[in-house]
What we know:
Number of strands of chain A: 1
Oligomer: heterodimer
Helix content of chain B: 25-40%
Number of strands of chain B: 23
Low-confidence stretches of chain B: none
Order of helices and strands of chain A: HHHHHHE
Largest sheet of chain A: none
Structural class of chain A: mainly alpha
Mean pLDDT of chain B: 85
Shape of chain B: elongated
Distance between the termini of chain B: 76 Å
Mean pLDDT of chain A: 82
Amino acid sequence: MAATARLSAGVAALLAVALVLSVPTAQGSGIGALVGGVGALILVVGLLSGHAASVTAAAVAFVLQLAIISALPVELSPPLWAHALLIVLIVEFATASFAARSHPVDPLRVVVRAVGTAIVVGGMVQVMSLLLEGVVASGVLVRAIGLTSLIVAGGWVALTWRRSSPSDVGDPVSRG
Amino acid sequence: MTVSPTPRLRAYVTAGLVGLGAALAVGDPGPALIGGALLALAMAGMIGRATPTMSVRLDEVPLSMVEGAEHRISMHLATNEKLGPVYIGIGLRDMDITSTEGGRLVEDSTLSIDRIERVARVVVNVSPRGWGRRELGPVTVYADSLLGMFDFLHTSPDSEQIVVLPEESILKRLLRPMETNLHIGELVSTRRGSGSEFADLRVYHPGDDPRSINWRVSSRARSLWVNERHPERNGDIVLLVDAQVESGTDTEFVVDRSVRMAAALLRSHARRQHRLGLVTIDGLCRWIYPGMGESQRRRTMEQLMSVTPGRVLWETAERAVMRVARRPAMVIALTSLLDPHLAGLVHSLRRSGIDVSVIEVDVETVLSPPSDEARSLGRRIWSLERDRLRDRLAAEGIPITVWHSDESADVPMARLEQWRTSWRRRLG
């Protein structure tokens, strides 16, 4: 494994552990930490064994961890924007680690892309949470709108994904 | 160009959808905010994605290279849209990249280009390590989309074969063939004919060239005498390269020395206008009949560079050698004498009246010292058997010398020439 791949994997694993350790464990929120811990464990195993699907599993586990904690009457730690920032950083570094196994990557570019994306996503979450602060959204209508948006987003992603099926176009190498 | 979604895209989309679903389940906007942000990121990465097309063309690839020397390889890349950053894996094996133009070296044989504006040209200067056949390629181009949601991969289907020759070395001393052939060259033939080297005087016969009359001798003798001359001819040189190896020996070292010596002999004899033939005695046992010219030189070098140590089918080898080594050829055998079959082959050549010499590449120095008494005894017996083999060849008048690892290539040649000279004198 290349040095960049090892380094990226190490950073991703450290951030995952840090995210799990930073969540509260009082009043049943330990279940959230447990889910996050399982995600971190899957990520570490995946990084060691070379299974890229572990990135997805870990990201899902961290989102579920947040959902569990936010459902309980405990203070959210780390804050929402930091949660988003850490999830993005973990995904970016873990993905860079897998990319660096198949071809060389520039470490500087990896860091710039990861930090830049994380800041954008963290900022977006913080702005949206400030805008929605104090807004009470409950009831059948809200759930219906949420479900509809979930289906639309899922459908759009599935459609775009299907269009982006692997293709091979180009000229073969030839001696000039 | 192959396009595939990265683990990043899968993670953002799945986590985003799970976040939205979880928010609905727990009735809290927190997971929805994170899920929405991740989905928005994934969507931004998917919008406007197109499949770029790419072509890679190797403009300048030398047919052959020389070990340690610098050679230039250039590539032309073209895409239908701007791409960046792009990584190009050239697939060079056993070659050092000394410098690059148009790209930055990031790993062994991978270059990085910050951005391709539809067309790019990359030049790499390489220095090969060791001799042999090398493969250039396949060339692989890696790139990704703007937010890294898709990987682009283009792999060239072909690869180029390059022959890497050993370092240039010219021998100062070469063996002179006992017999020459009919082509003009640098060797003074023992026969009489038109040439510049004076041989003898004889009485004039009608039909002799008047320019060959020796007027000074004729005036004294009061009859016409003519000068006889030795013509300048070339010789046929056939090299036998024995690549038979035995387990436990440093095969790389033994075969490497034989091949380097053979390459030096081929180059040096080619300079003297000799016709060159080659028999490589390895697993395949291939041969080239003696010939002259640039294409012959290239063919012999290419075959030499394809030598692979292995087991030899001696019946096939004998047939090949007997087919190529015919009078008036001079045969030089490069062998480690690990197998007595080669000694038998040399005997057969000698019995056919062929001028044959043997350079034995020393293997004893590369063998690990015996670890116990029994092995030490075994080694001594083995050495004695080899000595007996050597003595048998020498007793038949076959010049043989051991080329020790600390000697230059000229040393065994000098010893062989000395042997051949003294043998000629002994025969009168």
